[in-house]
Design brief:
This protein has about 575 residues and is of the alpha/beta class. Helix content is about 35%, strand content about 25%. It has a domain at about 450-555: GMP Synthetase, Chain A, domain 3.
Length: about 575
Amino acid sequence: MVIPMDDATLCSMLKRAAEQADSGYRFLDTREKAIYIGYDKLLEKAVQFAGAFSRMGIQAEDRIALILPTCPEFFYVFFGALLIGGIPVPLYPPVRLGRLEEYHRQTGRMLNISRARLVVTNKLIKRIIGRSVAKASPDLGIITVDKIKPAPFAFTAGKPDALALIQFSSGTTVDPKPVMLTHRQVIANIQAILKVILDAYPPESYGQYHSGVSWLPLYHDMGLIGCALLAVSRPADLTMIPPELFVARPAVWLRAISAYKSFISPAPNFAYSLCADKIRDKEIEGVDLSHWHIALNGAEPVTDASLEKFIERFAPYGFQAHALTPVYGLSEAALAVTFSDLKKRFKYKTFDPEALLNGRAQISKHGSNLVSVGKPLPGYQLEIRNQYGENVQEGIIGTLHVKGPSIMEAYDDNRDATLKILKNGWLNTGDKGFIWEGELYLYGREKDLIIIRGRNYAPQIIEMALHHFPGIRKGCVIAAGYVPEGDNCEKLIIFCERDKKGDKSGDKQLAQKASAEIAGAFAIRPESVIVMEPGTILRTSSGKLRRGPTLNQYLAGTLAPPKQVTIFRMAAEMMRSRIALGITS
């Protein structure tokens, strides 16, 4: 059933799912044991949390920050906030313990600009985030979920055009911005995704879509909207895996897909590479991936090499090549904008590198492979525009603009930033790309492009030349452009992390070899190749490379590897957290 738009809210969507009472969320722990929460139970708990929030003084339009791991309580708080007309603000927990100073700065900033009245977390996280909360000082402070006392409350669906949540953009080039989304906008995106799925896999031919698996974090749009809320809208079962468990043991993901006969499960490109490289046969004995019909790939650049390797590695376990589905979306559009054909093998083309550098696409037998991310979802439009704002013809590289029913309301309390990218319903995504045979191909972020001698180099294409380079950690390379002091021309600089097995003694030789590799592939020699310790390159909360901030910190002399996590350092951090929160006993 696709929910009618005239009266839909996320609360009414949950109520309808609860009335069916035969589906819900399944949460796996580190031992892969499951806790199952039906949507009927979820609604019951959410109503009780809404009553608790009401007694605490939370009112309509108040913002409630969620700093929680993947757990049932996340959804009790999320929907409980919505039931009283509040606005949930999902934020990421402190998972990179070696970079806590950066975490406190970012989280304190996000709490401030979202104007959160209350922070909801758990006992373990509270011990660490005191300094983050102190930077924002929400007037209701911080509460752990075990201290929330259930109270009665009358179900209220709310209004479709009320704010449903504030989700932060990824922050690959600048600090994350708070995206305001209404119930109507979120559900419009969910509906468009469901239409594509059900058109390709109608229930009468393929049976009901009843199962999905996700390890994606709930503070991320793909994890929250594309998995958790999509499952409620169907309604369907969703099995959730803690993100940190997937990173440590990626085979857990495939075992869950097999065990629960998952029909759909998405992930960023790196996850497919990680699985192909790290999972051993003995970890997936008996696994059957034949039920996995939709393996969405989005949130970061999609590479044909990663997908081909995944297909080859897991075809013996029943994985079907057509399941891999490159997609494109962004927080400012709620989530998805384009989908590839769900019933066909993913598509990529080889484009002439010289032509791409000159701003146009041209097929070549040798060159750069770019993967199609498909066509717009129903109700969405794309335009590629030049520097003058004019729509350009097929094959010309320009800036991608999108229009559709889920484009954000605005950035919260940031009119200038909103006006820069929103005009007449069209959103300037900041992504460079082109249309080829009616499908979208991406060529990098506008702010990340490296301009050398008048040519535009997409950083990810340069980075891919070192993707499998001996001595360099896979996926841990950044290409950036900068103008050295006393010069007036942009130069190329490469940051790369040495493999964990390496040591500093080989850095100089590794840098020379990497520089020669880049020069041979692109006829440009980097001004510098900086070899660093593992973990030094800055990343977003969802793991994307932060090229601009990494470069800026390096030039400022503040770029450093993460601190070693020790018992003594964590004890000191917990003490600072208690002091910041005013806890004296």
